[in-house]
Amino acid sequence: MIIAPSVLSLDYCDTKKQIEELNASGAQWMHYDVMDGNFVPNLSFGPDILKAFCRISPLYKDVHLMVNDPNTYADVFIDAGAQLITFHYEAVSEDAIRPLAKKIHDRGVKAGLSIKPDTPVEVLEPYVNDFDLFLIMSVEPGFGGQKFRENAPEKIRALKSLLNTKQSHALVEVDGGINAQTGKLCADAGVDVLVAGSYVFKNTIREAVKSLCE
Ligand code: DX5
Ligand code: ZN
After folding, report:
1. What is the pLDDT of residue 91?
2. Cα torsion for 117, 128, 106, 43, to the nearest 10°?
3. CB of 142 sitting under 6 A from ligand 1
4. pLDDT tens digit sequence for 42-64
5. Coil, strand or helix: which one is 62?
6. Residue 214 — very low, low, confident or very high, per pLDDT cuts 50/70/90?
7. Mean pLDDT of all residues in the chain?
8. For residue 198, how many other CB atoms are within 10 A of its CB?
9. Percent of the residues in the chain that have a pLDDT greater than 90, as a whole number
10. What is the mean pLDDT of residues 79-83?
11. What span, in angstroms and rounded, lies between the C-alpha atoms of 53 and 211?
12. Which DSSP helix (H) or strand (E) runs through 72?
């Protein structure tokens, strides 16, 4: 299981210390949420914070774009150090999805496609061989600390089965309301990457990460 703590929930008064704890926690990825106040009703980080985090953390930089213009911001965050760029199916037109995946790949970065809780898994079917990762949102994107949506494990199962049928090796990631209990439900459904924000940063970071791996 890959654990990807979401730095949206870190204590911004204690950023450096918490990132150092994260580096030593056993988590492999850092999940970095980008919000534009438009695709979602919240604002988060720009590229300069990612550049700073790259200087103090060797963790894999998993950038989740919750923006209406992922075409522009993919480049901005690749320049800032992203190693994986995930954008939303709901933010772009169907004919823009493959070209954007290709553009991200041409820059030597992995590409992911995400769906919101009410978007069915079937919409991903045409794209299963175009992406390295699919992100199932288990809360409405925009804020940390929300309740896990119960339909996520069945969506993970359906997606894993679709990927198997199409011989895709893409990873499946889940994001929103993940703690030791909901993480276990997703692990049982076959998820590869668990994103967790408030659960990791409102507890002892190392203990929380460890509990997600069990
Ligand atoms: C929500 C973000 C999440 C968020 C998760 O829109 O995409 O990554 O940080 O936070 P928790 O784990 O607290 O639900
Ligand atoms: Zn996220």
Report:
1. 98
2. 0
3. yes
4. 999 999 999 999 999 999 999 99
5. strand
6. confident
7. 98
8. 18
9. 100
10. 98
11. 24
12. helix 70-79
d(C-alpha 136, C-alpha 115), whole Å? 6
CA 157–ligand 2 middle distance (angstroms) = 20
Among candidate residues 105, 158, 154, 166, the one with its CA nearest the CA of residue 132: 105
- Comparing CA positions, the residue from 173, 189, 188, 181 lying closest to residue 208 is 181
Alpha-carbon gap, residue 99 to 105, rounded angstroms: 10
Which pLDDT band holds residue 117 (cuts at 50, 70, 90)?
A: very high
For the chain, the straight-line distance linking the first and the last C-alpha, in angstroms and rounded, comes to 9
Return the pLDDT at 73. Answer: 98
Rounded to the nearest angstrom, the distance between the alpha carbon of 4 and the centre of ligand 2 is: 9
Q: Which residues, in sequence order, are CB contacts of 51 under 8 Å at separation 6+? A: 80, 81
The catalytic position among 33, 106, 118, 188 is 33
Ligand 1 in reach of 88 Cβ (< 6 A) = no
163: pLDDT strictly greater than 90 = yes
For residue 142, the ligand closest to its alpha carbon is 1
Q: Which two tokens stand for residue 108?
A: 């030597």
Mean pLDDT computed over 186-193: 98
Q: Map tokens 């439900």 to a residue.
A: 185
Strand ranges of the sheet holding 84-88, from the earlier edge strand across to the other edge: 2-5, 193-196, 171-175, 133-137, 110-115, 84-88, 60-66, 29-35
